[in-house]
Write a structure and sequence with these properties.
CATH topology: TIM Barrel
Strand order of the largest sheet: 9-8-7-6-5-4-3-10
Radius of gyration: 19 Å
CATH superfamily: NADP-dependent oxidoreductase domain
CATH class: Alpha Beta
Helix content: 25-40%
Shape: globular
Length: about 325
């Protein structure tokens, strides 16, 4: 199975139909254990590339910068121009320094250089603002971001959000249009069978502005893989056991009912629940490339195989109507 390429919104770029997420690269969990070490990170990158993957998603905060460093080391042995690399800026990078976070010019300018150094590259294909910064006027950060595009350090801009605020994207892009700045051309919202808040306003806005949509958490943090049961105690090493906010968000009867539908359709099409959940997202016409955050090569292969799963209109309707 080789991933196909799809257009990234109106950027003119083509990317693999799945993006590889690197959130766990170098990340220490609550027990102080690194979730994905460097050797495993490189194995995942190798496997992704071998299957036609070209779209790599990271951030300056992932693993306190280790994710970018490991990607940079991996890219050093390959043709950098064959890959579309995206990173993000927002979260604090120094403690007790109010200017070392957010989207103020000082933080953005300092971090873009750090990102490029860690990735061992002269440019980013895509730079996201990792969250909105209400303390910095949109006109200020759009002007700064535009400077990165003009000097060649960044090719395109995007916005990654947890709370889908369509009006903030519209405001920023209208300011960019009025001033001749580079606008946001890619959106990275949370979107899956359970988290569908974007369908009311955010998704229509993305369509109107022809933004590419690169969803994060396509498997609802692992809930939609089917590894959790209604009346089962979550394994002590699982996210449900170590992250109370995750359990609070997803562990309810309505969501387990959705999962029941996913499992039934998985049996019908001869796929896994994770593959059906990803296939549903891939069938959404506005979606460009979901970000998969596999821990192992086997999980990555399972995710890639989801691109071959075909769901009928009736099955897609069943999944949609069975969601919370």
């Amino acid at each position: 199975m080789v991933l196909e390429t799809v257009p990234l919104g109106q950027t003119g770029l083509s990317v693999s139909e799945l993006a590889l997420g690197t959130w766990r690269f170098g990340r220490e969990n609550d027990a102080g254990e690194v979730e994905i070490e460097e050797d495993r990170a490189h194995e995942l990158l190798d496997a992704f590339a071998d299957r036609g993957g070209t779209f790599i998603d990271t951030a300056n905060s992932y693993g306190d910068g280790r994710a970018e460093e490991w990607i940079g080391e991996w890219l050093a042995d390959r043709d950098r121009d064959e890959y579309v690399v995206a990173s993000k800026i927002y979260w604090p990078t120094r403690s007790n320094d109010p200017n070392a976070s957010g989207l103020n010019r000082k933080h953005l300018r300092g971090q873009i250089d750090c990102i490029l150094d860690r990735l061992e590259t002269s440019y980013l294909d895509l730079l996201y603002v990792h969250r909105w910064d209400d303390a910095t006027p949109a006109a200020e950060y759009m002007r700064t971001l535009n400077g990165f595009v003009e000097d060649g350090r960044v090719n395109y801009l995007g916005t990654s959000t947890e709370t889908p605020n369509a009006w903030k994207v519209v405001k920023a892009n209208e300011l960019a249009r009025q001033n001749g700045y580079e606008p946001f051309s890619v959106a990275q919202p949370r979107y899956n069978l359970l988290d569908r808040e974007i369908e009311a306003r955010y998704l229509p806005m993305c369509r109107d502005y022809s933004l590419g949509i690169v969803p994060w958490s396509p498997l609802a943090g692992g809930f939609l893989t089917g590894k959790y049961g209604r009346d089962e105690t979550a394994p002590s090493t699982s996210r449900a056991a170590t992250d109370q906010s995750f359990a609070d968000r997803y562990f309810c009867d309505e969501h387990f009912e959705v999962l029941d539908h996913v499992k039934m359709i998985a049996l019908e099409v001869g796929a896994t629940p994770a593959q059906v959940s990803l296939a549903w997202l891939l069938h959404q016409d506005a979606v460009t490339a979901p970000i998969v955050g596999a821990r192992t090569v086997d999980q990555l292969e399972e995710n890639v195989e989801a691109t071959a799963v075909t769901l009928t209109a009736a099955q897609r309707t069943e999944l949609r109507e069975g969601t919370a």
